Amino acid sequence: MEDNRSKISLYTNTQRKISTVLYILVIIAALVTIGGAIYTIADLIMATGKMALFQTLNFGYQMAIIGGLLAGLFFLLIFFYGLYKKGSTLILNNIFKKRIYNDKYKGRLTVKLAAGALMFSIFAIIIGIMFAVFWDLTMRPAGGEGTLATAFESFSQGQIVLTIGIGLFILIGLIFALNYMWYNGYYMILKMITDLED
């Protein structure tokens, strides 16, 4: 416990807040994905008429079903709350690594400018590709087959929720990757320069 606290104290308040936000996003994506998977299974068992069937049940069955759903939700929330410290510490340790190249390049402005410009260019490429893919998926191209929205028309409600959950996980993965690059890419470039100079 003391070791974890000393490790966490090495990070800034902003870095700790970012790790907390990322952990909360992981929890939301997990809850949506699990809910979507359960909903998809329910769709496979009974494609339509679930709500009508629920309304025909007596109050005792309705209360038991709602209680079961709430029990599952609260169990997951307690589980994720219990993992909060470990999860946020894991994010901190993997995204915000110690930087050891600051002192060596303190007075070398040209090296820092070159590394910063390269990082900016890499970010422009990644964000440009992400925007292009999103545009192709959401806007109908001239003479194209359709968009993501038209593909959803053949999905059941459970499959839509499950797809949204998986999409959230992909988005969080991209946020992790971009965040890692933002905080560590600059120093990785400086390390590469050091290796080349040595």
Gist of the model:
The protein is an all-alpha fold.
Task: Walk me through this protein's architecture.
The protein has 198 residues and is mainly alpha-helical. The protein has one domain. The protein contains 8 helices and no strands. Helix 2 runs antiparallel to helix 8. The radius of gyration is 24 Å and the shape is elongated. The two termini are 40 Å apart. 9% of the residues are buried.
What's the SSE blueprint?
Elements: H1 2-8, H2 13-45, H3 50-56, H4 59-82, H5 84-95, H6 109-138, H7 148-152, H8 157-197
Give descriptors for this structure.
80% helix; single chain; 198 residues; mainly alpha; 8 helices
3D shape = elongated
Q: How many individual helices?
A: 8
| Global Rg | 24 Å
Strand content: under 5%
Cα separation of the termini: 40 Å
Query: Structural class, please?
Result: mainly alpha
Mean pLDDT over the full residue set: 76
Main sheet? none
Q: How many distinct beta strands?
A: 0
User: What is the share of helical residues?
Assistant: over 70%
The ordered string of helix (H) and strand (E) elements is HHHHHHHH
Overall tally of structural domains: 1
- Poorly predicted runs: none
